[in-house]
Each structure stands twice: as structure tokens, then as C-alpha cells.
Amino acid sequence: MRRKKRSFFELLLGFVSLGCLMYLIINYPPDFQFSIYNYSLQIIPVFFVLLFVFLYFLFDVLFASRRRGLFAGFFAATYLLLRLSGLTHPFFLVMLIILFGCLELFFVKRK
Questions:
Q1: For 6-64, how does the pLDDT look when each residue is reduced to its tens digit (9 = 90+)?
Q2: What range does the domain containing 22 cover?
Q3: Whose C-alpha in 14, 39, 47, 109 is 20 to 30 A from the C-alpha of 65?
Q4: Would 2 be classed as within a structural domain?
């Protein structure tokens, strides 16, 4: 079985997105809106995209599996979206763990 080469470029992209995420958290309040001409964009979707990108590349390099990186990024973003929506009961966390565990088992079995 061949091992996947850990790409320095992927790790660099992960840390660049972490830097952008930290800059965003430190310098802007959660209700800030970017205004470009007549279009305004809230900062919350940008936060979730940067968080997903950071976790995706980090776990991709750590586990040498893009699928696990994808699952880790989606898990964290989904959990934080649920918390943002006010769904804070521990049952939702357990359901997410079960969902992503089943997805991982489904794709492992499929190989």
C-alpha cells in the first residue's frame, strides 16, 4: 500500500486560512458586514468557510486522508452552526457524532 505524500502546499494553505481566521476573530465583531458597492456580506459565512478550510487541510495532512479532513471540517462547522441556531442540547452533539461515524463507516466499507 502506498502512502500519500503529505503536501507542504496543503499545510501552508491550512495555516494561511488559520491566520486569516485569527485576524477575522480579533479585528471584527460578529455582526460586522462587508460592503462592496451596493452588496453587503455578513462576516459569519466567511468565518465558517475559513474554519472549514483550516480544519480540512489540517486533518488532510495529519491523517493523510482527504475524506477524514472533509468530515472533520464539516463536523466542526455543523456543530458551530447548530450552536449558533440555539440548538445547544448535548443530544445534537451525540447525533452529529453518530451521523459522521456512520458516514465514515459507510465509506470504509465501500472500499
A1: 678 888 999 999 999 999 999 999 888 888 888 888 999 999 999 999 999 998 888 87
A2: 8-110
A3: 47
A4: no
Q: Does any domain span residue 46? A: yes
> What span, in angstroms and rounded, lies between the C-alpha atoms of 47 and 61?
21
Is 1 inside a domain boundary?
no
By the 8 A CB rule, do 51 and 91 touch?
no
Cβ within 8 Å of residue 8, ≥6 positions away: none
- Alpha-carbon distances, residue 108 vs 21, 65, 90, 97, 103 (angstroms): 32, 12, 27, 16, 9
State how far the Cα of 78 lies from the Cα of 55, in Å rounded to an integer: 13
Give domain status of residue 67, yes or no: yes
**Total domains, the chain:** 1
pTM over 0.90: no
